[in-house]
Queue: 3 jobs
Job 1
Amino acid sequence: MLNITYHGHSSVQLGTEEKSLIIDPFLRGNELAVTKPEDIKTDAVLLTHAHMDHILDAEPIAKANNAKVVAIVELATYMSWKGLDTLGMNMGGTVDLGFAQAKMIQAFHTSGIVLEEEQRIMYAGLPAGYIINIGGKTILHAGDTSLFGDMKMIGDRHDIDVALLPIGGHFTMGPEDALQAAEWFNAKLTIPVHYDTFPVIRQDAEKFVEQLASKGLEGRVLAPGQSLTL
């Protein structure tokens, strides 16, 4: 049994009866979030890239739970400087967390940490997505990405139960491109993420799910704080 909880934006928590992991925790900076960082109980924090709307709450959540932080090596190193227990990896690699295995896949985006006071941007490795095996299910979190052709290869090579795809546009692919991505990933269920948090990425998620259905694909919209069990 696997429980999937959407915390808003790109933050998703995957949990079995005993263990859980959270991806890209961004709660304090999201007015739509209904969960606070101190409410999160987890065993691992997975980060797709270094933008603030994906890493803001990684440090407090990891410290409060003594959780391991998984990220590409450059971002993992940065997080280790904050005193966190990190596990750095790279594109195509797989890490074993005991209760879950996470394979890092490519995403087309950017990744850097903006140091406002220094007016400097620090390189933080490549952006990524994950294919996660947990609770007998295969979950794909695409990260922040545009559409790219190798999504079809990924879908052909993996039997994906749930695909978490950004639909917001502007910073990532929008609904039209995400619809193509959903076809290529060919997951049993597609859940839209990374939308509505800011005015510039407002989208009609229900319409996106209707468009999935017109192509014979199942989709579901989760509100922040809402869960489903597989």
Job 2
Amino acid sequence: MARVLVVDDEPGIRTAVARGLTAEGMEVVAVGDGHSGLQAALTGSFDAVVLDIILPGLSGYRVLEQLRAAGVDTPVLLLSAKDGEFDQADGLDLGADGYLVKPFAFVVLVAQLRAMLRRRDAALGRTGQRVRLGPLLVDPVARSVSWHGDVVELSPREFALLHALASRPDTAVAKDELLRLVWGDEQAASRNVVEVYVGYVRRKLDGVGAGHVLKTVRGYGYIVESP
């Protein structure tokens, strides 16, 4: 089930989009202003964001700009009442993955959103093989992780990181290689971002008693050891 954040200050559009996406089998969180949208999106816990450009408090452009500056690359579909080529170019240059002009047909919004999610799935390896290492199960199709049957809740980026490591058990993976596998480009983020996300994953694994399987190879990268 895809988790989608909808940010739009028009109650009618916000409600209609949220209801429609829920009917399409998606989990939806909807907010009505830029600051709330930014705080929600910064958690990295969404698979996609539907983001209006004209918002109270903080425009959609600024929300998108701050997301990308923070290293959050959740796919973003911009909604705008402006159909000018320069407006679309500005949004795409800031890091948007799609641009839809109001008024729009809901079926077109869903089609764009599903296309974004498919690209996201491919980039994060969700079409890869399920990995079982003793009591650790990493399933890229369901995008789920469990330890002795206890579910480990991970964000899409955290899941991609763990899956990349678990797919190569007992093998040290360099930080640069993780940047390529998980972020898509060695230049897309810094090595420090990898360290931060490894910390996130390790803490969540610790919560179910599995933190020991993810180890640091000092000066090189990380390894998931077979239990």
Job 3
Amino acid sequence: MSEPSPKDPAPAEDADSEPRPGRVRKPIGWSTIIIAVLVAVSAALVWRRDGTEGVLDILTHDLSLFSGILPRVLAGCLLGAFISEILPHEKVSRSLGPKSGLMGLLIGTAFGAILPGGPFTAYPVASALLAVGADFGATIAMVVSWTLIGYGRAVAWEIPIMGTDFTLWRIVISLPLPVLAGALGRFVYVRLYPKRASDEDAA
């Protein structure tokens, strides 16, 4: 019995048994290129109007802003990384995964409503939830709820400026929107990425 040639393809079962590499984020994508082009065009327009001094003034202010934001971005990224390691994958997948149903959307909505902090906290946490088993729908519900309902901003800014009645009615009217957005996110995700959805269901 002859040995299989090294050129022959590996059996399908061996290919399926190998772990699939995770999604690699490219450091430079289309969004980065578009932003870089817009920055270059804007800088050229400012230079034409205000000269080199105007461009350097904007760069100085932006570098000062960047130095203030950088620690927050670093803290948010570290928070997301630690959360993805701390949270139990099985419980998150059961509570917020594709099979969590309406309860998963409600949990995501409630979590987003009470999540404190700004975007440097919310988006790393959302990314960590996706990494540990939450599906698109529950994560969308969380982000939309944090955006529309977030109690921190309501207490610190909205109630003192807009008043209690306005804030309460705005929250009540906004309550169904995260759930609807999450349900629509699940519906679209299953149809755009049927293979990924079937793999998640099998897992």
